[in-house]
Amino acid sequence: MYVNQGATEVTGIDLEIAHRLSLGDMGRLTTKLDWNHAISFRRAEQPGDKETNLVGTIGGLSNWATSVGEVPRNRATVSTNWTKGVHSLTGSVDYVSGVSMLLRSDNYEVFDTPMCYYGVDGDGYTQPGGLPKFSNWTSKCEVASWTTVNLACSYTGFKNWTLSANIRNLFDRAAPYDPSYDTEGFNSQLHNGFGRYFRLTASYKF
């Protein structure tokens, strides 16, 4: 027996731009932009379910009738690479926008006044599993945006060898707090808890 399981409709923009610039004797610059912009994300788990746009939210919190995860509105990476002969240096910036944790609807209605599930509502009530002092951390009831900077360099001056060094999260930006991840304290679907870290590699081609 087959059962209809509703539908998902997604619209957005994926943009990739690259620009190369010759610096003559000073080498070459290559700049890239990768950008993902979500416009609409709607899901009906079952035929007839109420649909709301879940972009910019944690879907299953915004609309309790869905099992949708995090839907950030924007993700982007901008990078610039300089190369000259056996030398290469790259700097990049990664960005992921914030997501709201407001409860806006269930399968029966869209609420006139959204409620912060992990905070305290207007009547001083906290949902089961919520954190009554969460509003002390943020007045926006959201997982904040996250921007990190990275550096990488490589050297190919030794025959058949490539030596590389990489620094991720150069400024050691902590991942934004997310109360729904009570063990990690951060949203592992959007961020990581590594902090600043280094990697050195050497590869040899036979």
What does this structure look like?
The protein has 206 residues and is mainly beta. The protein is 2% helix and 48% strand. The longest helix has 4 residues, at 59-62. The protein is elongated and about 65 Å long.
Q: Structural class of the secondary elements? A: mainly beta
- Compute the CA-based radius of gyration: 22 Å
> Average pLDDT across residues?
87
How many separate structural domains? 1
- SS elements, strand count: 13
Query: Major sheet: order of its strands?
Result: 1-2-5-6-11-12-13
Largest sheet: 7 strands, antiparallel
Shape: elongated
- Would you identify the regions where 5 or more consecutive residues have pLDDT less than 50? none
Report the total helices.
1
What can be said about this structure in brief?
The chain has one helix spanning 59-62, and strands at 7-22, 28-44, 57-58, 70-71, 74-84, 87-96, 99-100, 102-105, 110-116, 142-143, 146-155, 161-168, 197-204. The protein has 206 residues and is mainly β.
